[in-house]
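Format notes (please read before filing issues)

Several people have asked whether sequences and structure tokens are stored in separate files. They are not. Every record keeps both together, in the order shown below: the sequence lines, then the token lines. Line labels are part of the format and must not be stripped during preprocessing.
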Amino acid sequence: VDLPGLPGFEVRNALRMLAADLAAVGIASRALSIVRLALPEALRAEVAHPARFARCLDTAAARGALSDAVGALGAEGRLLLFPPVLGLDPAAGTRAWLEATAGCRVAELVGAPSLSLAGFRLARALDAALARAGVERIAERVQRVEVEGVRVCAVQMQGAATLPCDALVLATGRFVGG
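Then the structure lines:
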């Protein structure tokens, strides 16, 4: 799905990459085509800011404005692949609304080219999953890593606390900027 005015997403390149990836993994040729979502005037300024547009899609006002345009995209058996801007709040049910309105399946292309929103939502989902599992997260700078042979046994934090560990996850980036 082409969203006119969305920066950082070139629909033709995404389609070419998808076709090449499908061929590379041996999936039979699919009929791939580009459909353009006719954005109402009220949403054209929002799409220039992907995060603002995604938040907007979580609202009833935006859905009302987009309803006819989304309905025109669907067809039975079709899969609509959107850039990763389908809402920020999982509870809002943006993708489910799109599927019901279009009458077909809806998903997001998050691999290429990437937009930071996909990572933002993934980070929020991972944070929530860690909290539900009772995992303690410590956001501190590491001063030193203690090793025994090739095994990490402790991490000394900048605040002088030393944390013993059996396993270590190195997470050096965030959803924006790598």
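For reference, the curators noted about this record: Residues 10 and 86 are 17 Å apart (CA to CA). The mean pLDDT is 85.
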